[in-house]
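pinned: reference chain
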Amino acid sequence: MQKRINIILVLLMVITVTLTGCRNLEVKESSKNNVENLGNSPRIVATSMSVVEIMDKLNVDLVGVPESKVDKLPKRYKGTKKVGSAMSPDMEKLKALNPDLVLSPVSLLPDLLPKYRNQEIEYGFLNLNNIEGMYKSIDDLGIVLHREKEARKLRQDYESYMKNFREKHKEGKHPKVLILMGLPGSYVVATDKSYAGSLVEMAGGKNVYKSKDKQFVNVNVEDMLKREPDIILRTSHAMPEKVKEMFAEEFKTNDIWKNFKAVSSDRVYDLDNKHFGMSAKFNYPEALERLEEIFYGEAFEEE
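pinned: its structure tokens
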């Protein structure tokens, strides 16, 4: 029993699902049993709609789901208890559900990990920062939750789609791209480590900002200008209409933007945050098709 538990731990922590913490398996025998029994009708809560969608695709029941005004809840979870927003789930509601495992995106780990530990809640974090991370997390969940068949089918569909997509554009253009992620009143630059950044690279673009470990960076506009992006993409973390208005005002009133060739050549695009948000989702084909139009359509001619 102990050997199997250790194998599961190594798999999840080293690859992409952080089913942790030491407190789950070091101290309590009951916590060890929770890991050992995963897959046998475990009580699982998903705190973000991205995770909910994965559970639905894996044919896994949930006892708790997040509240969302943006994404539609899959039919199978109709009537399931709500545990609050993805950014700030209600710890009392989570605790009351007596979950064997609470699953959240790894991007929220710094905020949620202390709360889960404080409430002694069993937890796991999925890498949804990019598409490949999402599918590796699915691979791991397939093993842990005894859904290998479902996980394998999802992986095969993904690899087949990407093979065809890359084949279409193997000799295509590779525009330099600047990605701006906004909130009302402010914005940051999305690096290649962000979800939007990973989509750009999958589509054949070159992100003008790369990072070893940061998804977003604060950069002044003067530095952005030096990178000479061919295309500027703008998306939002939340409140997309207000963010769109903010970007429009920023580009209108800040004269430095007029010096960008992407602006002068009318290559600035506002993207739907349902496709270009914070976490990887199964709608990535629609996102790549949008980038395909921008990168390889008649509107773009490499200089």
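why pinned: The CA atoms of residues 180 and 189 lie 5 Å apart. The two ends are 62 Å apart (CA to CA).
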